Amino acid sequence: MSRPSVLRGVLCACGIAILSAPLWWGLRELFSPPFAWRAVLLAAHLTYLGWLVRAAGRRVGNLTLLAANLVLAAVVVALPLALGGVAALLAGLMTLSRTLLFHRRAGAAVLDVLLAASGLLLASQLLASGGGLTGAIWVFLLPQSLFGLLPEVAGDRPRTEREEPSDPFARARRQAEAALGRIVARPSKP
After folding, report:
1. Residue 104 phi/psi, 5° resolution?
2. I need a surface site. Which of 97, 105, 130, 164 has the fewest CB within 10 A?
3. CA 47 – CA 137 distance, rounded (Å)
4. What is the DSSP string of 66-110?
5. pLDDT tens digits along 167-181
6. CA 138, CA 20: separation in Å to the nearest integer?
7. Comparison of pLDDT for 157 and 150, the residue scoring more
8. Rounded to 10 degrees, what is the CA torsion of 145, 147, 153, 154?
9. What is the rounded CA–CA span in Å between residue 3 and residue 25?
């Protein structure tokens, strides 16, 4: 599992923000503006989640996570909440998904929640000062690009191959698997 770099996160945020503008204008012409806002938030959430799952690599449960997010995000968007409530619930769902995909310790997860809250605060301030939807999505997602640095800040580093587990049974199992791998890799004699 590799965490995306900050640059990749910034590029993803930029792409989603830029693509949200034509989607907003098109949906606003076809439907009511409140529906268009909700649909753009849903599309941005699912696009960002798809990027996260792709960045996480092949893992068991990715398809389940995507399906659960699709259902839960659609339910959140359909709830009779104010737009800020919808955005906050989608940000919470995004943070939970990111925690399940990338973080192993509670410290990184707590910092991730704070990162999402800061993005929501910045986006709400931009909207309150007359900024548009594209700017709000950009301002929300820009701090989210820092999430790849959170495990290092929280002391959650991935275990390297050379580190030995402290459990003697795990160590014995690892040694047996290595010996079996060497036996299988050895060329057979005719």
Report:
1. -105, -15
2. 130
3. 12
4. HHHHHHHHHHHHHSS--HHHHHHHHHHHHHHHHHHHH--SHHHHH
5. 787 788 888 888 877
6. 10
7. 150
8. 170
9. 33
For residues 16-22, give the mean pLDDT: 89
CA angle 114, 78, 38 (to 5 degrees): 65
One-letter amino acid at 177 equals E
% of the chain surpassing 70 pLDDT: 87
| pLDDT tens digits for range 88-108 | 899 989 888 888 888 777 777
Rg (CA), the chain: 21
24: burial class by Cβ within 10 Å (0-12, 13-18, 19+)?
buried
For 4, residues 6+ apart whose C-beta sits below 8 A from its C-beta are 12, 51, 52, 55, 145, 148
